[in-house]
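In response to reviewer comment 3 from the previous cycle, which asked for concrete evidence that the modeling workflow produces usable outputs, we include below a single protein chain processed end to end. The sequence was submitted unchanged, and the resulting structure tokens are shown without manual editing.
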Amino acid sequence: MHFIKMHGIGNDYIYVDEFLYKASADIRGAARLASDRHTGIGGDGIVLIERSSAADARMRTFNRDGSEGK
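The workflow returned the following structure tokens.
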């Protein structure tokens, strides 16, 4: 999985640009594994940047426990 990790004001997320790369089919499992600070990349979760029919892009956030953010 190709990614960029960014941080600010105490949070850090793993970003996947789905315009260029496809995220894991099991994104919930990938969020749990990648977010682990001891065995993974480490972070507060994964943010997918996806195509949108209403705007330039759509963001979907998956927390470190695999749940999708609201």
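The chain is about 15% helix and 35% strand. We consider this sufficient to address the reviewer's concern, and the full set will be provided in the supplementary archive.
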